[in-house]
Amino acid sequence: PDLPSRIEHGHPFTPYDRTTFYTPGEVGYTDYKTWEQLQSDKHDTAADTSDVPAP
């Protein structure tokens, strides 16, 4: 969904999932996350310390 923006800003493309080729529905066609969503997920994951045991 954000291909023009990725090209403009030099961001990498999302790897494809070959198992979704030629299937009905949006999976593999329009369900990929945007660059901003991926970066937000990375930030949220890095900030999540709920798995870290207390000292």
TrEMBL record:
The entry's protein name is Uncharacterized protein
- What InterPro entries does this protein map onto? Aldolase_TIM
